[in-house]
Structure formats: C-alpha cells, structure tokens
Specification:
116 residues; 7 helices; 80% helix
Amino acid sequence: MTLQECYTQLEGDYEGVLARLRSERMVQKFVLKFLNDKSYELLVTSLEAGNKEEAFRAAHTIKGVCQNLSFTKLYESSSKLTESLRSGAEADELVRQVEADYKKTVEAIQALQSES
C-alpha cells in the first residue's frame, strides 16, 4: 500500500498534508507515529471513569493531531466530540463514531506499516 492509498482508505487529505509537510518521507514518519499516540486510550479510559475533563483533553488532542496530519474523517468526528464534551452534552453517539473512525484510521496505517 502506498501512502496515498493509505490516505484514501482512512478518508484523509493526502494532497493537503503533503503540501504542509513537503515530503512523503516526512508525512509517512508522522503517520506511523500516530500508532504510538495514547490519546485514544486516554479518551476511552477517561470516559469509562466518568472523567469528562480528561476525556475532553484527550478528544482535543486527537482532533489536533488529525488536523495536522489531514486525517479528515477522524478529525471531523473528534472535533464534534470535543465540542460536545466542552459543552457537557450527551456524547454517546459521537464516541461510537470516533471509535469507528479511529479503528479505520489505525487499520489503514497498520496496512501501510506492514507493507513498508
């Protein structure tokens, strides 16, 4: 799988991230580092513990990383979750959407990593 195919699979903006980071090597380096980011795990454990403040910070971090890497689909859902947590609104459906988008993103990156 190429990096561009990975971005297609995770519904990201390959051209946008390439324009921002200027080299495919640099993009791939940061994309692969995403697998080691613990923000999603923190989000899940914080929500399970009822710690909405920590969950907000984790969702906000995911949103920022996804914005920087142009992971469009996960950025959009994590952005909505961030705003919902900020306002204290019910977020169960948004949490499920972030979970689905996160899994899709990780699967695409793992496929890229296994073929690199």
